[in-house]
Automatic annotation (TrEMBL):
Pathway: Carbohydrate degradation; glycolysis; pyruvate from D-glyceraldehyde 3-phosphate: step 4/5. It catalyses: (2R)-2-phosphoglycerate = phosphoenolpyruvate + H2O. This is Enolase. The active site is at residues 202, 332. Its cofactor is Mg(2+). Belongs to the enolase family. It is an enzyme of class 4 (lyase). Mg(2+) is required for catalysis and for stabilizing the dimer. Binds a second Mg(2+) ion via substrate during catalysis. It is found in: Cytoplasm; Secreted; Cell surface. GO terms for molecular function: magnesium ion binding; phosphopyruvate hydratase activity. Keywords: Cytoplasm, Glycolysis, Lyase, Magnesium, Metal-binding, Secreted. Substrate binds at residues 152, 161, 280, 307, 359-362, 383. It comes from Modestobacter italicus (strain DSM 44449 / CECT 9708 / BC 501). Mg(2+) binds at residues 239, 280, 307.
Length: 423
């Protein structure tokens, strides 16, 4: 059972404060978990508690840390660490708000994940096995964000993330090599053209480009330069993060103001021209009717992923499923704030025929929990940035370890992660 719960303020990959929690069990087990943070956050996400004031530009988390030390910790002493669902319910009740704004989702999530890790270690199991059970064996396709725009870069590119999916590989390790070689080839392509090779928040390059199609053309060139075939070895995926450029007037895209129908037309043209298998947040988090129409128009050719739309919230996801909005769920543990609610969202998605993509945040730490969760929850896809910057690479490295541990039982999701493409 739980002996003590500690917490401290540490820094994330952008140099902003975040919460780290440590849990000690009475059998001597000690584990820790650190909490990520987004930049293009959805309005319906659970709330991060930030101190305000001048220190760290208002982004300190000492109140969230104090909440763990003074409110949550004392409540949990003596609690069985393996009772995750009961424990997460206790956290939700202790907070008492629908969006976890009293104690902060950053405080609550840190405790929830640290306890799960402690229970796994105490049981002598790797986290993916403890959470996923004896049959967890599917290694996800790494959706590598190699060109960053939008809120993650100081460029004029509207689309936030241009990802490559190494679908043709036989193993995760091979997929990582194929994707990383392409990333390095992209650097050479950019250099040759005199374009910037500076990196965005998620480790991808962040050049200024005349249009979003130019980004895709550069990636096509990089794939070929690396010796791979576009479409069979490597497919493409986008996170448009369209909420960021949406207002009452419409979508401010490439210097024009577009309606959702016009933006959907634009995507249809992209899907015709490039091997795009997945588009995330193509429209804004408020535009339900647009999402339904877009899913009808494109959903049998391409995966449509709800991030800001669903915010890993089982209730919002249920609403979207009932309406027919999107056909896949982006999974971010800190959008909802507990492991249990994350599991519930993914279970609901899979039972409803929606696919799922595990995801990092643009502000990350060295914590690798999401790598284990991607395998445990059978996601088949993970996005955790470019193969650069250690907070991104740490997750890919953890997946290498998991694949090695699973040995002959491991299976790489590959093209089958996108059934309509495989068909
Ligand atoms: P964020 O971006 O972590 O800044 O929200 C990631 C995403 O939009 O998927
Ligand atoms: Zn997103």
């Amino acid at each position: 059972s739980i002996d003590a719960v500690g917490a401290r303020e540490i820094l994330d990959s952008r140099g902003n404060p975040t919460v780290e929690v440590e849990v000690a069990l009475d059998d001597g087990t000690i584990t820790r978990a650190a909490v990520p943070s987004g930049a293009s956050t959805g309005a319906f996400e659970a709330v991060e508690l930030r101190d305000g004031g001048d220190r760290y530009n208002g982004k300190g988390v000492t109140q969230a840390v104090d909440g763990v030390l003074d409110v949550i910790g004392p409540e949990l002493v003596g609690f069985e660490a393996s009772e995750q669902r009961l424990l997460d319910q206790r956290l939700i009740d202790l907070d008492g708000t629908p969006d976890k704004s009293r104690l902060g989702a950053n405080a609550v999530l840190g405790v929830s994940l640290a306890v799960a890790k402690a229970a796994a270690e105490s049981a002598g199991l790797p986290l993916f096995r403890y959470v996923g059970g004896p049959s967890a064996h599917l290694l996800p396709v790494p959706m590598m964000n190699i060109l960053n725009g939008g809120a993650h870069a100081d460029s004029n590119v509207d689309v936030q993330e241009f990802m490559i999916a190494p679908i043709g590989a036989a193993t995760f390790a091979e997929a990582l090599a194929v994707g990383t070689e392409t990333y390095h080839a992209l650097k050479s392509v950019l250099k040759k053209r005199g374009l910037s090779t500076g990196l965005g928040d998620e480790g991808g390059f962040a050049p200024s480009l005349p249009s979003n199609r130019d980004a895709l053309d550069l990636i096509v060139e990089a794939v070929q330069a690396a010796g791979y075939t576009v479409g069979t070895d490597i497919a493409f995926a986008l996170d448009v993060a369209a909420t960021e450029f949406h207002s009452d007037a419409g979508y401010a895209f490439e210097g024009k103001t577009l309606s959702s129908a016009e933006l959907t037309e634009y995507y249809a043209g992209l899907v015709d021209a490039y091997p795009i298998v997945s588009i995330e947040d193509p429209l804004s988090e408020e535009d339900w009717d647009g999402w339904v129409a877009l899913t009808q128009a494109l959903g049998d050719r391409v995966q449509i992923v709800g991030d800001d739309l669903f915010v890993t919230n089982p209730a919002r996801l249920a609403d979207g499923i009932a309406r027919g909005a999107a056909n896949a769920l982006l999974v971010k543990v800190n959008q909802i704030g507990t492991l249990t609610e994350t599991l519930d969202a993914v279970t609901l998605a899979h039972r409803s025929g929606y696919r799922s993509m595990m995801s990092h945040r643009s502000g990350e730490t060295e914590d690798t929990t999401i790598a284990d969760l991607a395998v445990a929850l059978d996601c088949g896809q993970i996005k955790t940035g470019a193969p650069a910057r250690s907070e991104r690479v740490a997750k890919y490295n953890q997946l290498l370890r998991i694949e090695e541990e699973l040995d002959d039982a491991a299976r790489y999701a590959g093209a089958a992660a996108f059934p309509r493409l495989a068909a």
